[in-house]
Amino acid sequence: MLHFALELALVTSNLEVSGSVTRLNSQTATVETAVGAQEILQTPGADQTNSLSMITDFTPGAYMVHDRLHMRAGHQVNWFFDGIPVVNTNIAANVAPLIDPRNVAELEVERGGYSSQYGDRTYGFFNVVTPSGFERDNEANLILSGGNYNTGGGQINFASHTQRFAYYASFDGNRSDLGLAAPVSQVIHDQSSDLGGFVSLLYNPTPKDQFRWIGSLRGDHYQIPNDPDAQAAGIRDLDLERDYLAGFHWTHTFSEDLLFTLSPYFHYNAAHYLSGPADTPSILDDNLRSNYFGARFVLEAQKKRHSARLGFEVWGQHDNTFFGLTANPGGNVLSETERHWANSNALFLEDQFKATSWLTFDLGLRLTHYNGLVNENAADPRLGATILIPKLGWVLHGYYAYYYQPPPLDSLEGPALQFAVSEGFGFIPLRGERDIQHDIGLTVPLSGWTLEVDNFHTSARNFLDHDVVGDSGIFIPLTDLGAIIHGTEVTLRSPRLFHTAQWRIAYSNQIAQGIGPITGGLLESAPTGNFLLDHDQRNTLTTVLSLNLPSRTWMTPAYQFGSGFLNGNGPAHLPPHSTFDLSIGKTISENLTISANAVNIANTRYLLDTSNTFGGTHFINPRQLYGEVRYRFRY
Fold it and tell me: In this predicted structure, what is the pLDDT of residue 16?
C-alpha cells in the first residue's frame, strides 16, 4: 500500500512514503510543545468542546482569562489545521472554539522563535494535526458524555481508506447550563450550545503528490452570564458565533531535496452580540461578519548543509459590520452598517545552515505589505542558532526576531463615531503591532527525562488591546503606545516510569506591562507611562500525571496554580488560586471505554479577573462532573 503521511509541523515538513522516507529536515530554535490524542482523551476536561485544557494544561504561560486564551500575556494567536492557516484579525469578538478537541490527532504549540513563513498573530501558534483516515479501516467512534449543569453531548466520527484515498469525518453537538465565565459566584443565565462538523479528504495520485482537503463548520450559541441584579432587571444578552473553513493542501516532491506546497483557503467568521428585547438602559445589536480568502506557496530545498525556503502568502479580508443601539426607554440611538476591505502580501525566505555537527544557524526575512484602513510595510529579519553541547547532549538555543501583526479591520464612522464622541471617546484607524522578541533557552535530556528552560523578552509597539464604549457593550480594539512582556518558562516531561506513570509540568514566571497613552482605535483617558496589563499574572503552574493502572484502567490527576491576575487597575493582584481535576477511565473491551471526570473537584470558587469583557468580573467555574462513553464499531 502506498501511503504519504505528511507531518505538518509549523516549521518542519517531513514526507514519508511507504517504507522509505524523504525529509526536508529543519533544526530550529523554535520553542514548542506537543500534545497527543491520548493525552487529550485522558486529561480531565481536555476533550470537551468548549475547553482549551489541551493547551493550558501543557503549555507554560497559557491560561484562560475573560473567556479568551492568552499566551505570553497576549491573545493574538494563530491557528492552523493540518498546516492550513485559519486567518482571523479580530481580537475582541470571538469566544467560541475553532475545533472539537476530539478531532485532534496531535496538537503542536509554538511560543517563540517562529519561522519566517509565519506572521500575523505572534503570541502563539497552534497547529492541529487531524486524523488522516489511513490509520483506520471502516471504523466509527461514537462518543457520548453527560454531567451536572445539564451538560450533555457527543461526537460521531468515521474514517477509512483505500490504497490511495483516505477520509475522516465527524459531527458533534453539545449543550450546557454552564458556558461562559460568570461575573458572580452563582451561575445565572449561562446556557451554551453548539453544533459542528469536520471533514478531511486525503488523496495520493502519484508517489510524488499528495492532495488534502479540509472543511469545518461550527455554530455556537452563548447566553451572556448575569449577576442577580441584571437577571432581575430582565437583561438577556446573547453571543452568537459562526465559523466556516475550507482549505486545500497540495504537496509535490520534485526530488528528495526539493519540495513544493500550495495551500489556498477560505475562512468565514461571524460574531453577533445581541441584547435582549427588555434590556436597559440600551439594547445592542453588534454583528460582525468577516470573509478571508488566501493562499500560501512554499518551495523548500535541501542541499548539503543548507535547508532553504522561499515562499509567498497573500490573503484578503472583507468585513461587514452592523451597529445598532436603541435606548430603553427611548428610541433608536444609532443604526449603521460598515463595510471594509483589506489585503496582506508577504514574501518570505530563510536558510537553516548546519555549520557543524553541533551548530546550526537560522537566517530569515519576511517582507509584508498590508493595505486596509491604513497602508503599512514591514521588513522582519529573523536570526537564530542552536548549539548541541558535546557529550552532555544538551541543546542551547537562541532567537532574535522582528514580527508584524496586521491591525483588526475595525472602525467607527458616522453615527457610531458621533455616539462614541458623545460618550467621551474618539477613534483613529488602528496601525499594526510591531514586536521585537528574543528567546534564549536550554534543553536538557537526562535518562529519558526532558527539561526545557526558555527566557523571553517581547518589546511591542502599537500593542493591540480592546475596550468598551461606555456601557454600550460595543467592544472596539485599541493600541497602546507599547508593551514590555518578559518571563521564564520551564517544562519537564518524564519518561514512562515503572511502566505506569508519565509526568508533565509547565511553569511560567512573567510580567506584562503596557505603555501609555493610547495611540489608535478607541481613544479614551488612559494612563501614560508604564502600567500593568489586566492579564498580568506573575506565576502560572500546571502539572498532569498520567497513570496506567492494572485491569486496563487509567487515572489522570491534574493541578493548576495561578498567583493572581491584576486587581482592577492595580498594581495589586488578586489572591493566588489553584484547582484540582481528576479523570478515571477503564477500557472494558477493544471497542468500549468509559470514564468519569471531575474539573475543579474541590469546588473552589474565587474571583479570577476584573476585566470589563462580557460582564466586568469573572469567577472560576464551579465543580463540573461528567461521565463519558466511547464505543468503536465497524461499518
Answer: 38
